[in-house]
Amino acid sequence: MRSLHLGRPSRIAVRVSVGALAVAIAVAGTTVAVTGAAQGGDGRSAALVPAPPPATGPPSAPARAASAPTPSVAPLAARITPDVLVTAAHALTPAELHQIENTGQARHAEVIDTARVRLGDGSTEAVGVAPSTFRAYTPAGTAESNPLWASVADGNVAVAHAVGKALGVPLGGVATVGVAQQRAERVGAYATTGLPGVGVLVDRALSGALGLVPRSGVILAGAGSDPVVTAALLTKALGAGYTVTALRVPTANGRLAWVAPAAGPISSPYGSRDDPLHPGRPEFHAGIDIAAPLGTPIYAAAAGVVQYAGPASGFGNEVILQHADGVSTVYGHMSTILVTSGPVAAGQPIAVVGSEGESTGPHLHFEVHVNDHTVDPLAWLAAHGVQVTR
Length: 390
Known about the structure:
It contains seven helices and 27 strands. With 390 residues, the protein is mostly beta strands. The chain has two domains: 4-47 and 254-388, Glucose Permease (Domain IIA); 82-247, no CATH class. Strands 14, 17, 19, 20, 21, 23, 25 and 26 form an eight-stranded antiparallel beta sheet that branches. The longest helix has 12 residues, at 227-238. The model is unreliable at 1-5, 7-40, 42-58 and 65-70 (pLDDT under 50).
């Protein structure tokens, strides 16, 4: 069997750093070479399967009145492209909001509730929004859809698709979410908002119950010609205590810089295969397995934001990074997670190799998602400058 060695990423030069998606990275000479036989693998399918309920039974979502009307969501009148996201750990004062709008030269500003929340046994960023207005700030063809926003307006949580898969929670299932105290909430939709690192989306009416900080974030639209420059100006003007992220990121040749996520041979490629844990049972392998000794560093394959970090169904432990242009990467089976939130740079260590979850040996399971659909990670890396020698 042919297998690939993914070389350790070489030295990284960071040009601008104002947030995960506002980082321009230059990476020199990452290589991938062919050698050796395969080892290690996992038996996790790409299918979304509910996690087994605990012995005491799963929590129940709050009962909703059967006679309650389904909220209507008006058709989208105009599209506004989001440029910059500003968040803080406190409620923003009118003076702070005025400073943000003026410094950002924004034509439109949408105030939101935010907080880092526990989701199941892991963590992610949650945003409380007004469904009737926030959808104007979402990318084309994603969260503007009436079913998603009607579900959010009806009091259900929306969970990022990759995060829902990590937790093994299907649509209609129940997830526990909150800051100080977790509540059982029905997952009414999967959300793709384009906001970096966001794994949970709710109506602002639910923000207080989940512990989100009211009016702690602002989405700016029409904020100058270059969101990266605008984000840098805001970072300087606001100082410490704020997170400023450019949501539209100009990159060289329209691409982020990519590096190999770990060093080792490819023990299982992307696509159809026999389930290693159940010989003779076919399954679809949604990523690649990179066999490596316990403790081998795992690197962020590109600049991004931590969308989820924690325990996961099948993978044992999992990290999900969100990148620009609807791209996310998934890393599974690690023994130790080194990041929990915030921005990461390409090539930054985020975890170490383990054999947690459904695994036959130490390895990294690595996936690339584009607009919630998996693609072959080897083909993606090759197309984005990670040299593949065959």
